[in-house]
C-alpha cells in the first residue's frame, strides 16, 4: 500500500467516525499513532 493511499485511508476513516459521532477523539489519536509508526517504519526501510 502506497504512502498516499495509506494517508487517504486514515483521513477517510477519521471523517467517517467524526460524521457518525463515534468517539472522534480516540479514533483520531489511534490513526495518528498508526500514521507515525508507518512513517518510522518507512524511514527505517530507506536507511
Describe it for me?
With 47 residues, the chain is mostly helical. The protein has one domain (3-46). Helix content is 85%, strand content 0%. It has helices spanning 3-19, 24-46. The model has no long low-confidence stretch (mean pLDDT 69). This is Triphosphoribosyl-dephospho-CoA synthase. It comes from Candidatus Phytoplasma australasiaticum subsp. australasiaticum.
In short:
The protein has helices at residues 3-19, 24-46.
Strand content: under 5%
**Biggest sheet, in brief?**
none
Number of domains: 1
- The termini sit apart by 19 Å
Number of helices: 2
The run of helices and strands is HH
Average pLDDT, all residues: 69
Shape: elongated
Based on CA atoms alone, the radius of gyration comes out at 12 Å
Helical percentage = over 70%
Low-confidence stretches: none
Q: What structural class results from the helix and strand content?
A: mainly alpha
- The number of E-state strands comes to 0
Protein name: Triphosphoribosyl-dephospho-CoA synthase
Topology:
Elements: H1 3-19, H2 24-46
